[in-house]
Amino acid sequence: MNSSIMKKLLKNSAVEWKTVADIFTLKNGYTPSKAKEEYWEDGNIPWFRMEDIRENGRILTDSIQHISASAVKGKLIPANSLLMSTTATLGEHALILVPYLTNQQITSFSLKESYLNRVSIKFLFYCFYDFGKWCANNANKNGGLGIIGINKLKQYLIPIPPLHVQTEIVRILDKFTALTAELTAELTAELATRKKQYNYYLDKLLTFKEDEVQWKTLGDVVNYEQPTKYLVKSTSYSDEFKTPVLTAGKTFILGFTDEIDGIYKASETPVIIFDDFTTANKWVDFNFKAKSSAMKMITSSDKSKYLLKYVYYWLNTLSDIKANNDHKRQWISNFANKKVPIPPFKEQVRIVQILDKLDALTNSITEGLPREIALRQKQYEYYRNLLLDFPKVQE
């Protein structure tokens, strides 16, 4: 597919550019009073929120929550209307196939009668991907909470090619959407299988009987260091800087700093970073600075006997790591006293080699399936943008 497709579709045809105000009637949503039980009991009118899009997708026939007829102000939004989040989370959109209402975070777009036979609502649904980006970029973000008003939304220009062109574009994008969803589902299922396989071998390779191996306390096998001299002084991060600032939690890389003092040289001596409160941990083999004083830096107490990567994998078999909700320091009071199975060093190396391969395939963004899923989505977006890239008439 390339630009020649668009040229063929538009042969001898003109593209009009119309404002949102030309095409739609706009309406903001509201939340009926929670104090009035009759507004919410036995309701059968769909009342949409952002959660509906997050959980059920962008083409919807029902909502998670419903309201009763007594809670309705004025008329319902007609079926086959579009909605978009215009407060806080900006630019997320959906096509609603039934009459409905929304909360105040959402603006609805219903076709004016004069456009009912001129445009395909599904074509406009695809146009709303770019509209959503424009909405996010042009919102008023004073005070931190992004919001974009109806008057500004009305200014956005939407391309209106002939109806047969709209129909063909919808046909192509519907087919591409279904194919992308199918491939993503297959890859997601494969990823789930790989994760299950990884966890199986993690437990299998690191489970030993009492008399099979030596058992040492974790405090004997590894040393810990406080991160005091590695803490970042400024949180003015930039992608232009070189040194990552780490946390042991989900975010992992908080940003990049230009500070040159107090850098932990993990490229020379890899380390486990361990959150002393949550017990979350990460393997790090690149230079970094630390964000939190609660982070412990864990290294092997004897590299000839205890392979640190082996200890890292063993740590992640512990139930404490998988679910710890106690907000207290864990290393000295709890983890340092845990008994670690210590097989011969060659066996530690063998176990790590196996788990490294499975880990890379399962979790790595550059080597594993998550990257493939992201590439499929990026490919889909590329072709969608190509099909909706109409020439604008110069003023």
Outline of the structure:
By secondary structure, the protein is α+β, with helices and mostly antiparallel strands. It has eleven helices and 19 strands.
Distance between the termini: 30 Å
Give unreliable regions as ranges: none
State the helical fraction. Answer: 25-40%
Question: Structural class of the helix and strand makeup?
Answer: alpha+beta
Coarse shape:
elongated
Oligomer: single chain
Amount of beta strand: 15-25%
Average pLDDT works out at: 88
Strand order of the largest sheet: 2-9-6-7-4
The main β sheet shows up as: 5 strands, mixed
Rg of Cα set? 28 Å
Order of helices and strands: HEHEEHEEEEEEHHEHEHEEEEEEEHHEHH
| Number of continuous helical runs | 11
Number of strands: 19
Description:
- The chain has helices at residues 3-9, 20-23, 50-56, 121-137, 150-153, 163-205, 218-221, 308-315, 319-322, 345-363, 369-387, and strands at residues 16-19, 24-28, 45-48, 59-60, 65-67, 81-87, 89-96, 101-102, 106-111, 157-160, 214-217, 222-225, 243-246, 253-257, 271-275, 281-284, 289-290, 295-300, 339-342.
- With 395 residues, the chain is of the alpha+beta class.
- A hairpin with a 5-residue loop joins β15 (271-275) and β16 (281-284).
- α6 (163-205) packs antiparallel against α10 and α6 runs antiparallel to α11.
Topology:
Elements lengths: L2 H7 L6 E4 H4 E5 L16 E4 L1 H7 L2 E2 L4 E3 L13 E7 L1 E8 L4 E2 L3 E6 L9 H17 L12 H4 L3 E4 L2 H43 L8 E4 H4 E4 L17 E4 L6 E5 L13 E5 L5 E4 L4 E2 L4 E6 L7 H8 L3 H4 L16 E4 L2 H19 L5 H19 L8
Parallel strand pairs: 3-8, 4-7, 13-17
Antiparallel strand pairs: 1-10, 2-9, 3-5, 6-7, 6-9, 11-19, 12-18, 13-14, 15-16, 15-18
Helix pairs in contact: 6-10, 6-11
